Amino acid sequence: MKEVILIKNGELALKGLNRRTFEDVMIRNMRRRLSDLGTFTFTPAQSTIKVEGEDGVDLEEAVERISKVFGIAGFSRALKLEKDFSLVLEHTGKYLEQQLLEASTFKVTAKRSDKKFPYDSPQICLLLGERLLDEFDHLTVDVHNPDVTVTVEVRDHDIFVHANQLKGAGGMPVTTAGRAALMVSGGIDSPVAGWMMAKRGVELTAIHFASPPYTSERAEQKVHDLLGKVAKYAGRIELTVVPFTEIQEQIRDKCPEDLFTIIMRRVMVICAERIARYGGCGALITGESLGQVASQTLGAIGCTDAVATMPVFRPLIGMDKDEIIAISRKIDTFDISILPFEDCCTVFTPKHPRTRPKLPDVEAAEAALNLDELVERAVANVRRIKIG
Ligand code: ATP
Ligand code: MG
After folding, report:
1. Mutate to test the pocket of ligand 1, among 241, 339, 345 (most ligand atoms within 8 A of CB)
2. DSSP string, 286-310
3. Quick check: is 38 in a domain?
4. Grouped pLDDT means (10 residues each) for the chain, 388 residues
5. C-beta of 189 in contact with ligand 1 (< 6 A)
6. How much distance in Å is there from the Cα of 345 to the middle of ligand 2?
7. How high is the pLDDT of residue 49?
């Protein structure tokens, strides 16, 4: 008798990605996430993966971590029993005691993949239902809308007993959709954007532009902490920190003030693409949301996109701030994001940024910079840090 975790797969109707690959990647991701908790075995069968830890592992923590692995639609903690129905009758009430005490109605369902098992599904439901009614006086059966559904799965080697399934993180297993570079600031939006793309199976690397001494070490620490939270879902993230001070000073000194932000964003994209390509990424990700600030108008985004040669994913583009905040709370980045440290975007910001910049004006203004050399120098002096 032992407690295990049963995983239900998420989206399986996938184009170009067969179920085996999907499962293999999901198992690899779970294995990594649990590796420091002890030895676990992962056994796929039908549409379920059984996760079993060695004796004494912290199952509570394992469940917590598994709840953040993308690709998992739902999961249950389950009691694993030998194939003897008397054990089911004996142990189910005790195992599900807490949930059954809190419920007023229940039903039993049975799944029997071993057709040779001496009890068929209706018999299992009837006998276990009677037993639970005996053990819990306050309970009644409701087959349509029960508070608790007790499930008995009779498999080839074991019987599993579990109650209400928990919701998994959903989405697709990370790495199945390739790799992209998240442009991450210390704000609310970009960590959420990264989380959203990781949910679609994208492996993340991260790029952060820092402008010391205008920006502090604590501002960079904030980015590390934010990525640490995202990594609980997305797996390990390599962060590349790009020195941006010289570039910002040059833009301030040589370009018109009202175009400062747009030019800065374009140079960020140029640098980010270089780093992304070197890291094998197929896209950039930003936390932009249409109309949120002056640099996120249609015109400004158009000017920024004009320097991009790889796709720029903006998963928050159509979201309201409160919707973004709701996700940032859920993934536990919000409290870190609102810490008040200066980001390079708030250094030298113009009083009146142009909201409808014209691309030829921007390009003409940029010509005053020695861009190739500046980008070259910034990209040559990055620092790389592994997070998660
Ligand atoms: P966030 O909350 O993500 O900081 P924001 O609403 O403050 O976004 P901006 O400051 O205009 O918006 O930045 C827009 C996007 O540009 C960010 O979501 C992020 O993807 C990218 N970005 C901004 N600052 C940096 C930075 N210092 N390093 C890397 N990327 C950045
Ligand atoms: Mg910001």
Report:
1. 345
2. ----TTSSGGGSHHHHHHHHTT--S
3. yes
4. 88 62 93 96 89 95 97 96 97 97 97 93 97 97 97 95 94 95 97 98 98 93 98 98 97 94 96 97 97 84 96 98 98 96 79 87 96 98 97
5. yes
6. 6
7. 94
HSE-up (13 A, CA, CB side) for residue 177? 20
Beta-strand relationship, 148-154 and 140-141: unpaired
Atom of ligand 1 nearest to the CA of 287: 18
User: CB-based burial of residue 262 (10 Å sphere; 0-12 exposed, 13-18 middle, 19+ buried)?
Assistant: buried
- Last residue of some domain: 120, 136, 167? 167
Number of CB atoms found within 10 A of residue 306's CB:
12
- Last residue in a domain, options 143, 167, 191: 167
As to burial, measured by CB atoms within 10 angstroms (0-12 exposed, 13-18 middle, 19+ buried), residue 216 is middle
Note whether residue 173 is domain-resident.
no
Number of domains in the chain: 2
Residue 258 sits in a domain of what CATH number?
3.40.50.620
Q: 343: CA distance to ligand 1 center in Å?
A: 9
| The ligand 1 atom nearest the CA atom of 289 | 6
Nearest to 46, CA basis, from 121, 156, 151: 156
State if residue 286 touches ligand 1 by the CB under 6 angstroms criterion.
yes
Domain range for 63 is 2-167
Supply the residue whose CA is at minimum distance from atom 6 of ligand 1.
189
CB of 208 sitting under 6 A from ligand 1: yes
First to last CA, the chain: 34
The count of other CB atoms within 10 Å of the CB of residue 283 is 19
User: Closest by alpha carbon to 167, among 91, 74, 53?
Assistant: 74
Has residue 174 been placed in a domain? no
> What pLDDT, on a 0 to 100 scale, did the predictor assign at position 288?
96
Q: How far is the CA of 388 from the centre of ligand 1 (A)?
A: 21
Domain-located, residue 371: yes
Q: What angle do CA 12, 19, 13 make, to 5 degrees?
A: 25
